[in-house]
Amino acid sequence: MAEGKSSANQRLTQVKDFLTSNKTATTIPFDPESTIFPSRKELPAIPGAPAGAAWVWGQDDFIGRLNLLTPTRVAAAGKEIKTGEIVPLNLPLDVPKVPAFHREQFEHEIKVLFPGVAYDDIYRLNTQSGTQWDGFRHFAHIPSQKFYNNTHGDDILGPTANQKCSIHHWSSHGIAGRGILLDYRSYAHKMGIQYDAFDYYPISYSELYACGKDQGLDIRPQSQGGDIKIGDLLFIRSGFVETYHSSTGDERAKAANRPHQLGAEDGQRWAGVAQEDKMLDWLHDCWFAAVAGDAPSFEAWPTHQDYHLHEHLLALWGCPIGELFDLEILAQKCRERNRWTFFVSSAPANVPGGVSSHANANAIF
């Protein structure tokens, strides 16, 4: 009976698609060129996966929602390029000088080959210390200890280590598409909302919606009548970089050196996106190819819920998270032009077995 009902529903979907010129993703692996994808509440159960997992691109998939960056969508995003002006989105590799979460500081050494004639240089760095993409090996779904698409800790390190969810898969595919900026920090200033980006402050979906409206954007997905397109790359400016540049060296170091532990009592405290059901629905149902912000953790830290957005975005959905992006000039250019979408490209490091990567990202108007 259940199989008959499922078959009937599938036929009904096919008829609807024919009448509306859509393509609904119903069968795993999903076709990335689909125009309708399930909402978070409509996700099919996947054998062996935690509840709420969207491991929908096939058993051997390690790029997650980057699959949405198809040639068709990238070509459409290319139409965002009007003036050709390039805005780099990367902080210097030594910023923050003292990284958050007790990560190693960037070290740069000039190596002399022939004095006055030839030089090399040597970098020592933690890929999470500055402008970065969190790869799928970075953060697991904590209750199941499963990383994206059924990857485990033994796949990452140890005698059975392999290249499942390695960052080089992203590099092989590439990241390019339509970016969209929500400049929450400027909206907060305008509305008299005061908060310290160096402290816990959760930015709710309702606040982001109001921010978008103030910018002339409807941040709902197109399927609900909004302006967000499938495969968009989301950027949220929450104010960390602004606060960093306006703080003294001692203030920066004091914030970065606060004690770090997992849980609500963590001394590391940063403004970011709120952990709430509305936020989960929005982040999932827009089918972003990636999300990013200027904060050290993208989400408000520490979480005050029994989950992290990292678990959902990275492990359950395969959606890359960018952190510590420099959005200051981007926000200025967007505001001057009253234009909040642009073309964006990023070249993650081609490191087989790698966990994460600096972003090497540019926005182009």
Account of the protein in words:
The protein is globular, with a radius of gyration of 21 Å. The strands form three sheets. The chain has a nine-stranded mixed β-sheet with strand order 1-13-11-5-7-9-10-4-12, with helices on both faces. Strands 2-3 form a two-stranded antiparallel ribbon. Helix 10 links the parallel strand 9 (290-293) and strand 10. The mean pLDDT is 95. Helix content is 27%, strand content 16%. With 365 residues, the chain is α/β, with parallel strands linked by helices. The protein has helices spanning 2-20, 71-77, 153-156, 168-173, 184-191, 205-215, 240-246, 249-256, 277-285, 309-316, 328-337; strands spanning 86-88, 107-114, 118-124, 132-134, 175-182, 201-203, 233-236, 271-273, 290-293, 321-323, 341-346, 357-358, 361-364.
Gist of the model:
By secondary structure, the protein is α/β, with parallel strands linked by helices. Helix content is 27%, strand content 16%.
- The end-to-end distance, rounded to whole angstroms, is 54 Å
Residue windows where pLDDT falls under 50 for at least 5 positions: none
Number of E strands = 13
What does the largest sheet look like? 9 strands, mixed
Strands side by side in the biggest sheet: 1-13-11-5-7-9-10-4-12
Class inferred from helices and paired strands: alpha/beta
The overall pLDDT, averaged over residues, is 95
**How much helix, percentage-wise, in residues?**
25-40%
Strand fraction equals: 15-25%
Over the alpha carbons, how many angstroms does the gyration radius reach?
A: 21 Å
* Pattern of helices and strands: HHEEEEHHEHEHEHHEHEHEHEEE
Number of helices: 11
Rough outline: globular
